[in-house]
Specification:
The chain is mostly helical and 454 residues long. It has 20 helices and four strands. It is 68% helix and 3% strand. The longest helix has 36 residues, at 366-401. The chain is globular, with a radius of gyration of 25 Å. Mean pLDDT is 81; it is low at 258-267 and 446-454.
Length: 454
């Protein structure tokens, strides 16, 4: 089969093989660390914590950390503080002139921005680590953290050492992600999140399968229907990630001789604008904000009022109507917002003009920029609606088909889109190595370039 031959070719490229082995090794280290419990905690007391973080928003957070959150692991904070720091720095880059200046300085400026993000990650960890330790007793049903410790272990020492370990664990996970990006294959941070999500997939599927078979709740036929629907939603997610609007482009300079290597300016005759240029970032933004209503409802000012209880009830249920309605609206809003930040139509128009290219019927310069901005606005609307539908699809699966909540999270939302997006990005990087060495690529668009090189 062609796919088997392609996989064999992957191992023929020494650099690619070494990168893949290094990536798998570092991912294995991350998964091992997710099973190492904080020193001093009695493992027998973790059953209540795992039960208390199996559903709702905490279940989603636990999925992102690959179960480390429920294990009270040294990687319990996961890589999410780094993601939060990256989002904050990116947003502040709009308002702070110093960050804007760094963004324009190229590699040296990006290096400074990365350093700022790392320090901000540590700051966020120093806030989240004590908060996590303080919530462990309530989540596990224990009267205090002391009841969960091994005999003779001092509670104050545990707090101090655990904060240091949790911060160090997050920094180490960040380092693993950066090493994978530099020396391995794929985006390291995204791969760590994806591996954490995939780690909970088998257990979620088995639990849902048992509930179908043992409880006479649809049996094998319902399991088969669920798998078909899951496959279809994966296809829809792939379409969402890969779909582009092609803008026809012509170049004023062309070589007369033609040919693949010589006809440089004529080799690409369209400008691809992605249907979902913002990726999963709008979902991550919206997900972060969706934690706020339940926190406000549970605050000391509102927790005893009718409105506070309503907010706690409706916004703690990630499969409820009001949660998903607000969630979908926020995704649409953030998709427009993030696309406006990340798609520089002015720069695209300037680059096109400098390279001697133009869009037929559109003048180069500002008119081209306005045209591209108009097209982006038009395709962002269906893209944002599609993204919102994929994000809230798990709620439909739970309400209409009675799928268990843990398994339903893989039918859409952040989990599925991250897995699809990271898998496609990694495949594209492997594909580029194969094509550069004149092998058939993994992707459908890959062509055998042996004939070209001859």
């Amino acid at each position: 089969m062609k796919i088997i031959e392609t996989l064999k070719n992957v191992w023929k490229i020494t650099e690619l093989k070494d990168r893949i082995i290094l990536t798998l090794g570092l991912l294995l280290v991350y998964r091992f660390g997710a099973q190492v419990v904080l020193p001093g905690i009695n493992i027998d007391a973790l059953g209540g914590l795992q039960a208390g973080t199996s559903e709702g928003l905490l279940g989603l957070l636990n999925a992102f950390t690959g179960g480390a959150f429920a294990n009270a692991s040294v990687f319990a904070l996961g890589i999410m503080p780094y993601i939060s720091a990256s989002i904050v720095v990116q947003l502040m880059g709009i308002a702070i002139p110093y960050l804007q200046k760094l963004q324009k300085e190229g590699a040296s400026g990006q290096k400074k921005i990365t350093q700022i993000t790392r320090w901000l990650t540590i700051g966020i960890c120093l806030v989240q680590a004590p908060g996590y330790l303080a919530t462990i007793p309530s989540l596990s049903g224990s009267p205090s953290i002391g009841a969960m410790l091994l005999p003779g272990f001092n509670e104050n020492i545990f707090y101090f050492s655990s904060v240091i370990i949790l911060v160090t664990g997050c920094v180490f996970a960040m380092w693993l992600g950066e090493k994978i990006t530099d020396k391995g294959i794929g985006n390291g941070i995204s791969l760590l999140i994806m591996v954490g999500i995939i780690a909970t997939l088998p257990q979620s599927f088995v639990q849902n399968m048992y509930s179908r078979l043992e409880g006479s709740n649809g049996g094998f036929m319902m399991i088969l229907i669920e798998l078909v629907i899951w496959f279809l939603i994966i296809l829809a997610s792939v379409f969402l990630v890969m779909a582009v609007r092609k803008i026809a482009v012509q170049y004023a300079r062309r070589t007369a001789s033609g040919g693949y290597e010589k006809n440089v300016f004529g080799s690409r005759q369209f400008l691809p604008l992605k249907l979902n240029a913002s990726g999963v970032m709008p979902i991550i933004f919206a997900q972060a904000i969706m934690f706020v209503p339940s926190l406000i409802g549970g605050s000391s000012f509102l927790k005893d009022t009718a409105s506070g209880q309503w907010m706690q009830t409706n916004f703690s249920d990630i499969f409820g109507f009001w949660y998903n309605l607000v969630f979908a609206l926020l995704i649409i809003i953030f998709t427009y917002f993030y696309t406006a930040i990340t798609v520089p139509t002015n720069k695209m128009a300037d680059d096109l003009k400098r390279s001697g290219g133009f869009i037929p019927g559109i003048r180069p310069g500002s008119e081209t920029s306005e045209y591209l901005d108009k097209i982006m606005s038009q395709i962002t609307l269906p893209g944002s609606i599609f993204l919102a539908l994929v994000a809230v699809f798990p709620a439909f699966i739970v309400k209409l088909m009675g799928v268990q909540q843990g398994w339903a999270l893989f039918f859409g939302g952040t989990s599925l889109l991250i897995m699809v997006g990271v898998a496609i990005d990694t495949m594209q990087q492997i594909n580029s190595y194969l094509l550069n060495k004149h092998y058939d690529g993994l992707m459908k668009t890959g062509k055998n370039r042996k004939a070209v090189s001859q």
